[in-house]
Specification:
The structure is a single chain. The chain has 296 residues and is α+β, with helices and mostly antiparallel strands. The protein has 9 helices and 10 strands. It has a 5-stranded antiparallel β-sheet with strand order 1-2-3-5-4. A 3-stranded antiparallel β-sheet has the order 6-8-9. It has a two-stranded antiparallel sheet with strand order 7-10. The longest helix is centred in the C-terminal third of the chain and has 32 residues. The relative contact order is 0.12. The C terminus is likely disordered.
């Protein structure tokens, strides 16, 4: 997406921003991300460094994404960045976040970020949906649901649903993981975000066995109903096949199908040894046993 620099923003908007933050001393455009026309790290005289994210008012999809971030910010405080200011001026809608000084997460082999990511995802599993109505997870895939699948995907937990490496920041101080860009929230089973993340690990080069071993550190996943997991995988695969075609979806669908190889605690007695195989411990490097990963 083409980004708008600070000097290209309407004067009315720039004045509204500086009225609250003090003079903007410097501004640097951020290239990562897809949803915002303006994404800037600004250094201000009064509020220090902020991340400014904005869209034009006529960008319906972008404005909807920003509204979700604004509505959910109080709910996700502690696992996501805090909004400092909200602006509507000059035909733009913008949010100014307290800047997370850090880098995007490494999800590849031998990553040292997996423990921090797991800790934050476990904190997210405690999030309950706010009073603001949030779409049910199954609603996103209405066209691809078969009878009974929507019920299997019901839940009361707030989900991010897009935990790719660009949406997870690792703080410079302490190595804490923060999940950013809450633009596509849903309500559903608490194990869905860890499952999505395990698929991202495979996408980033982790073996399926290592991704499932990492995933086994989540009790909610271990206790998930296998029928619900199967519904999740099947719905996602139908969605991607319909969206990009069978050939285009084949690699992604294969990664999602790897989730079906996990033996959940409810089925351990029927598949001896499978649960133990996937509960290998991980080290901070992301490699499997004998290293250890502290998930608590």
């Amino acid at each position: 997406m083409s980004r708008v620099d600070w000097e290209e923003l309407p004067a009315e908007l720039r004045q509204a921003i500086e009225l609250r933050t003090g003079r903007v001393v410097s501004a640097r455009s951020v290239t990562a991300g897809l949803n915002a026309s303006a994404a800037l790290i600004i250094t201000t005289a009064g509020n220090g460094r902020l991340f400014l994210k904005g869209v034009r008012d006529d960008d319906v999809a972008g404005a909807t994404a920003l509204r979700w971030e604004s509505l959910l910010n109080r709910t996700v405080r502690g696992v996501g960045p805090t909004i400092r200011h909200t602006y509507r001026a000059g035909g733009w809608f913008c949010l100014a976040f307290i800047l997370i000084e850090g880098r995007h997460a490494d999800m590849g082999p031998r990553s040292e970020d997996l423990g921090a990511i797991a800790f934050t995802l476990r904190q997210m599993q405690k999030l309950r949906a706010p009073q603001t109505p949030v779409p049910r997870f199954a609603q996103r895939f209405t066209a691809h649901l078969k009878p009974g699948e929507a019920e299997k995907l019901a839940g009361s937990h707030l989900l991010h649903t897009d935990t790719n490496p660009h949406n997870i920041m690792i703080g410079d101080h302490g190595g804490t993981a923060y999940v950013i860009d809450w633009a596509m929230p849903a309500v559903g089973p608490s194990w869905i975000d860890p499952a999505y993340t395990a698929v991202r690990l495979m996408e980033c080069g982790q073996t399926p066995a290592d991704a499932l071993a990492w995933l086994s550190g989540f009790p909610h996943w271990r206790r998930a109903d296998p029928r619900a997991v199967e519904a999740f995988v099947n719905v996602i695969c139908r969605h991607w096949t319909e969206t990009v075609g069978e050939r285009g979806a084949s690699a992604s669908n294969e990664r999602f199908r790897q989730l079906l190889n996990f033996s959940h605690e409810t089925t351990t007695s029927h598949r001896p040894g499978m649960q133990r195989r996937h509960r290998r411990s991980f080290g901070s490097s992301g490699t499997s046993s004998p290293l250890r990963l502290h998930l608590s």
